[in-house]
């Protein structure tokens, strides 16, 4: 079964910031999309990776695109407010219905992630070329498969605790920075029928997405977050369930057939 | 320290529904407020319980009221949409800043609870006089203190799984119904600096809030959810934190003194 | 990659109890092994299922057998004490090193499960032909894949809360019984590098393991619990880690090469 | 209600190690006991702190002592094996029955903690005067009350991930070390009716327990872990529960009155 990934890129720093142009001459989204294609390919997966940009977000993240996306990655930073509310809500709805979602780095402050978390997602930060070390704290997690302990990122923006998120359903990675801070850098959340993996490495001013170990984490996460092909893409149901509905053929009190609850 | 509780009541069924008028002649909010006052009083607590109604929600849940509320209980059902978005967001903000929040029964579908959860909060339901048995599944949880195992509620609306919420941070109670369904009926969530306890018993057509064991759960939950008096009521902070900020007196990169992070 | 499963059966009720002989003429272990073989085969998996019995447990669960087992299922009831302590500890060690473990029904009281949980694993029970309904409470869990909501088991022994286990890392199923009790019937635990799924349906006096939906759960659980083929089968490491060990080639203070931490 | 604390100290390094004698001339246990007495006293608590040493552990941690202990702190390092198995099992039993338990630093490898966790409790370590910074990651946790973010410990032994424990029920603190490692340094676990808080700062060669902020954490933890006075000190019950036992007066199938389940 082909794994269909959509890589959303804000693509704004790339237009105005020389350092970013130098690191990512074709845009961060191109590097991320290429990394997913090659890493998953090397793992034997059949993948179809497309790119969606903010400039035409109504089309690039349309209802049809999302309905045909298994896993959506999201990178945004300076233009969170330019994402229309209805697109953010569309993404959230698709996550609840089963689409995997991988918010990256500064996407901690993106509209869809904040709506899904219900918290401020505040944190401490410092852009000062800290070394980051990404430590695994879950002994058997598939997202940590095949990566060293720790992953060392030579230069990175610092993200520090207290990170105002719900306690993750699974904590995969915790990072330290040369300045002394710590951060819950790899966090799994289950919401509705969707799976979310937040991964904090990846500031635009550092070549993080060129690092093979980071690419492997993204590939692992896409595999982990993909929906089950035989589970209907639809929200967990609300229904008026008459007594014994589950014995005698499921029908709601309104007579509608209950073909699916979860 | 006085525990300041605000009991929010929708007070709409009470105006139009004879059965509810019979069970709660002074409104469900009056029964809940009285139960909290007497049960917490009997436990030796100093409490100040006020009531807030939907009809004047802008004043009854004003910024000033919420700033002086330790724990907010919320009952609503037929008029969730009449709660203004800005009031719902104000409640959510106060929870994140430390206010306790106790959504009751059909408040699973209230605006503040859904914003805090990030999920649909869908479920199955049936209003058919089911017996509900509320079982404790956490051996030392303070919210289960002093209540029987199980609490038997002779008649109740059924709420059934799959309940589309994030996995609770602490599962206190699980209910079964005479029709066979189960429900995670007592759920703790930590969000920001606030504590949330969702408790599902309490449909308007049954005398659930008159039951002493249910009143004890509400009292226990108010004690559990109260904020710590020496913790500032403010959100977890976002700040640009210069290197060594935590050593040399905390100042942000903008020179603002960091007096508080959490 | 072949999934290597060992099905441990106590095989004592089968020798003395006519009802069990009638339901499982070749032993419960044979039914379970057959169900795993056929269900996983139908799902396209390459499996190798062997049986291990209490009568020759030193050989059937030898170090060599366990080292070549990806997932161990365990059914025991009347003879938990006949499992030698060293075999129980061997199983526990292999789980910590990455082997999947599926304790079934009364294996809640088996030596390996209790050692892994650290709690009493006490519960309430009643053998009185209760109907059990197994409800899914996790919208995207692979172990709930392809099974109805709820699974209805016409007759079963009742297991009821309070079940004295650590809070499960993932709650997949919750059951109700016709007598009114509830039970956390499908529970995932991560311990060391191993994955554990406890599943409570399956008393010897009822034909539970002949039910296709139960067989599907067992197959799903085996897939979920299997170790990653590229992760070394060994415990998480304890080591004296000199400063910068992770930069300059990992060596312990004793000079031993650190080839693996997790 | 007086909070009755027993401070267990191994008291072996104090006999042979000059550095430890210099830092803790009356033994580490004396410093810890004094800190708890004074800090809890300053918080307005009525406390009774006694000391128990390894040399007479059969008496100092007798059945009677434990039955009259609300919270037991445990420091041990070089003599874990000298703790008799039956004493370790006695401690574990009391925790399951409701006693609070605070294993400190190298008590991660003590017999009672390992029995309660079910895992190896392995970790990385280095005794090289690392600076440790203890960060709060739970916005409203009572154990983090009144302490700075971070607590800076000038010199400490490094404990590093992967720490082979079950995922904590509540993560309160995460530490970083000047060498770059991270560690889940403050972890809450619920087991049976007891509460466990593991806190890693406190090596014998550094004056950690003289630091006021560390003393505050210990005091907070003792308050958090204390059992509820109206909850019976006994394990969660196993019982044969006849149909309708919870309606008609609880009796087991053997006719014994069920006066307590949890």
TrEMBL record, chains A, B, C, D:
ThuA-like domain location: 4-225
InterPro entries: Class_I_gatase-like, ThuA-like, Trehalose_catabolism_ThuA_prok
Protein name: ThuA domain-containing protein
């Amino acid at each position: 079964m082909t794994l269909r990934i959509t890589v959303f890129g804000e693509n704004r720093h790339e237009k105005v910031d020389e350092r970013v142009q130098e690191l990512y001459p074709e845009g961060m989204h191109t590097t991320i999309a290429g990394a997913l294609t090659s890493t998953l390919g090397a793992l034997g997966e059949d993948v179809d990776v497309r790119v969606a940009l903010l400039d035409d977000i109504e089309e690039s993240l349309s209802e049809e695109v999302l309905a045909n996306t298994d896993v959506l990655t999201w990178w945004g930073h300076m233009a969170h407010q330019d994402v229309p509310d209805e697109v953010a809500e569309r993404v959230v709805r698709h996550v609840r219905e089963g689409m995997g979602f991988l918010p990256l780095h500064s996407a901690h402050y993106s509209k869809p992630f904040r709506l899904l978390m219900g918290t401020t997602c505040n944190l401490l930060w410092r852009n000062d070329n800290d070394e980051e070390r990404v430590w695994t704290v879950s002994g058997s997690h598939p997202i940590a498969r095949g990566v060293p302990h720790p992953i060392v990122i030579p230069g990175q923006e610092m993200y520090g605790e207290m990170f105002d998120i719900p306690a993750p359903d699974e904590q995969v990675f915790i990072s330290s920075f040369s300045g002394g801070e710590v951060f819950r850098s790899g966090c799994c959340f289950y919401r509705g029928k969707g799976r979310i993996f937040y991964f904090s490495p990846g500031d635009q001013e550092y070549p993080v997405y060129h690092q093979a170990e980071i690419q492997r984490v993204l590939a692992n996460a896409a595999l982990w977050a993909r929906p089950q092909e035989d589970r209907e893409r639809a929200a967990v149901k609300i229904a008026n369930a008459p007594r014994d509905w589950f014995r005698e053929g499921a029908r709601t009190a309104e007579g509608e057939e209950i073909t699916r609850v979860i």
